Amino acid sequence: MRRIVPAGDRALLIVFGDTMTPETLADVLTFEAALRRVKPHGLIGTVPAYASLLCTYDPDVISGPALERQLRALAAPQRKRLPQAVHEVPVRYEGPDLARVAQHAGLSVADVVSTHAATEYLVYAIGFAPGFTYCGILPEVLATPRLPSPRTRVEPGSVGIAGRQTGMYAVASPGGWNIIGRTDTVLFDPRRRPPARFRPGDRLRFVPA
Amino acid sequence: MIEVLSGGTWTTIQDRGRPGWERLGVSPGGPADWFAAAAANALVGNDPDAALLECTLIGPTLRFRRGAMVALMGGETATSENGIAFPVAAGAELKIGRVQRGLRTYLAVRGGIAVPRVMGSRALCQLGQFGGGFGRPLQAGDQLPIGNAPTPPSPQGGGRFSQRLPLVGPWEVRVIAGPHRNAFAADDFARFLNTAFRVTPRADRMGMRLQASGLRLHPVEILTTPVTQGAVQVTPSGEAIVLLAEHQTTGGYPVIATVISADWPLLGQARPGDTIHFREASLAEAQRARGRLDSWLRK
After folding, report:
1. Taking CB atoms and an 8 Å limit, are B258 and A125 in contact across chains?
2. Helical packing angle, B283-298 and B34-43, nearest 10°
3. How confident is the model over B215-260, as pLDDT tens digits?
4. B120 in contact with A at a CB cutoff of 8 Å?
5. Which end of chain B has fewer CB atoms at under 10 Å, N or C?
């Protein structure tokens, strides 16, 4: 069931659920694709993440209530299948928090690497900072809380773990995820089209390099 | 060309930013005080999207290789008068100095700062380290190209623009409830509105951390969700973070309220130590407030 709530005077947030599941993500992305086909006048952009979709608009062109009516009228489309192609991301598993994750899981470092690399992940969001790639669902055994205090700088290409999520930093930024490796895959380049390497709904697998 | 002799505390090139790219994690950016920036551009007859300088706390010192018409708007400095366009001669230096009332002042140059657009905008993307000419705030030695003057000539030539918004606190800032009001206890929003928040030193273009003594909100955790400018997030420790122009695009803290866009300029001028009160507004009130600012810009 969709819920639509104002996020200030220039955006509406559509909430599709409150859990990280492939089905809810597919609902979000299906709705977003249908909305982008309709392109309501005054809609500026859409931002999908996990179980919600933000719709930004220009209130000089369309009022919030008018856009909300259009969103409600958009027939709930048949849930699309997510793309089947699996992208491979080569990773050097040598991050500073690999030992911390292993200790938390009660596994050897080698088992952490093989477990992390044996799982196929879905991209649930590109967000926080340019190109940051949120993936799930991490096997429960590897789930590790964020660092007690975030690092002031995490290098681009860093692969990390936070709770049941794994993700990749595209640009240097502060960050509190447990860093377990590094990829040379360029995740974000503002001069490339599209600038981000991945998008929500992509499937990927990490390959030890 | 303008040569930067001293960059100041945190001087960035801004235009109206790059809305629409949030889906790739790119913040819309743009001026922290969009109203002052738009007024500065209007004073020199620029298009509202022309790139200008956002100067924070201590502004830059500049040498103009050729003569130009400029205007300052927003926070007030001791060196130049706000709200009036004035010429700078070829070879002359312009020292902006310290912003004494407010936090940010905007320097518009007729023709705009003509650095290349990246992803549709000349504004700096701080996290992505691109745009803004150099992918970083200005430093001594930077050369800023000036664009062609717009035609027809400025209708505002010689015009004045009076400062209409407050530049010093305490601030009253209007909010719309939510979007995650459900993550809070029933009376949390009322308590939030009755609280005086203090701006902490942890404040920049991305967001401002606010402290409130005596207020303890304990929201439930939420799944990572898209967030907007003006969103007031509440952390598990009960601190509030209000997001500004260069905000992260997603967040995991619930948002109790969102500041209306007509009051974003106030947040852009608030200094550490200032007091902020939030007051609830309707969508209709937000739209009227925005319309009033827009009508001032058209005069």
Report:
1. no
2. 20
3. 888 788 789 999 999 999 998 777 899 999 999 999 988 999 999 9
4. no
5. C
Between chain A and chain B, the number of residue pairs with CB atoms below 8 A apart is: 149
* A49 to B224: CB separation less than 8 angstroms, yes or no: yes
pLDDT of B157 over the 80 cut:
no
Half-sphere exposure at residue B241, Cβ-oriented, CA atoms within 13 angstroms: 20
CB-closest option in B23, B251, B258 to A8: B258
> What ipTM was predicted for this assembly?
0.94
Q: Up-side HSE of residue A179: CA atoms within 13 Å toward CB?
A: 20
Answer for the pair A36, A84: CB distance below 8 angstroms, yes or no.
no
* Cβ–Cβ gap A130/B127 under 8 Å: yes
Q: What is the pLDDT of residues B106-123, one digit of tens each?
A: 999 999 999 999 999 999
Residue B38: what pLDDT? 96
Q: Which of A8, A19, A173 lies at the smallest CB-CB distance from B228?
A: A8
**Do residue A190 and residue B231 have CB atoms under 8 angstroms apart?**
no
Identify the CA nearest to B106 among candidates B30, B4, B31: B31
Contacts of A93 (CB under 8 A, 6+ apart): A109, A112, A113, A116, A117, A180, A181, A208
Residues of chain B with Cβ-Cβ distance to A128 below 8 Å are 25, 248-251
Q: What is the mean pLDDT of residues B130-150?
A: 95
Q: Let me know: does A40 contact A74? Beta carbons within 8 Å.
A: no
User: In this structure, how many other beta carbons lie within 10 angstroms of the beta carbon of residue B250?
Assistant: 25
Nearest CB partner across the interface for B20, out of A45, A52, A170: A45
Q: What is the pLDDT of residues A115-136, one digit of tens each?
A: 999 999 999 999 999 999 999 9
pTM: 0.94
Whose tokens are 């491979």? That residue is A88
- B78/A contact by beta carbon, under 8 A: no
Whether B129 has its CB under 8 Å from any CB of chain A: the answer is yes
Establish whether the linkage from the previous residue to B170 is cis, with ω within 30° of 0.
Answer: yes
Whether the per-residue pLDDT at A193 is higher than 60: the answer is yes
Give A-chain residues touching B253 at CB under 8 angstroms.
Answer: none
| Residue B224 DSSP class | -
| Token reading at A207 | 């390959």
Residue B87 has pLDDT above 70, yes or no: yes
